[in-house]
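Incident review: delayed structure delivery

Summary: a single-chain prediction request sat in the queue longer than the usual turnaround. Root cause was a stuck worker, restarted by the on-call engineer. No data loss occurred. The affected request and its eventual output are reproduced below so the record is complete for anyone auditing the incident later.

Affected input:
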Amino acid sequence: MDINFPLLLVLAVFITGLVALFDRLVLLPKRKLAIENFKSSSGSEPDGETLASLEKEPSIVETSKSIFPVLALVLVVRSFLFEPFQIPSGSMIPTLQVGDFILVNKFEYGLRLPVIGTKIVSINEPQRGDVMVFKEPQNPNINFIKRVIGIPGDEIRYLNKKLTINGKPVPEKYIAQLRDESRAYQLFEETIGSKSFEIRKDLGVRSLRAEGVWIIPQGQYFMMGDNRDRSNDSRYWGTVPEKNIVGKAVYIWMHWPSWTQLPGFKNNGTIN
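Output delivered after worker restart:
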């Protein structure tokens, strides 16, 4: 089952805030009235133990009032500033490794309401070469991370592992040929505009399903993984609507591939 954490966080803030407000408007006046009634009936100030008993808040009120500010702060930070994510797959290798923890800038592409994602303040638009987190078009409860290859109006062509944008081949420079546990692959430095980054292409693998020509509609973006032969991206399921944008991936702050290993910081740095 996919857990919608933003929705749970919004509900938690709403419920704890509602309890705190109910206490302020209804229960607190009753506690003050009880103290005044005690003074009137006894003719004296209540002692410390009696006063503590009369002022005591219900446990649900006490808990809600203590965690509401923390939850509200987390909601604001996650919704409008930065949100952490962990990389679960190798589709962005070599830029991002499985187990990398990253920070995503939530305001780079405009401020959006939590859960529903409606943009309320426009700032910048995604640019070719950005690494972007977005909701999968076919299942919005799942977040994907890929690189922006095509923006509205672009013609994207990917044939025989060669990328072309608006009729111009994307420059790529050979770096090395390596091998992992399953097969040999090559690393290239690809340059889109002013951004250069590494991509990986497997040797002896070619998927005709990943090849084609796409015209990017208005309000849509074409996304590809840097691990070109091991990425489930726009080549297979189409473009990403603007409303599905979550934010721009900007920084790797920790690497922790599994609970059986110690976290590391060797990958820390900005994301190109």
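Verification: The two ends are 33 Å apart (CA to CA).
Action items: add queue-age alerting; document worker restart procedure.
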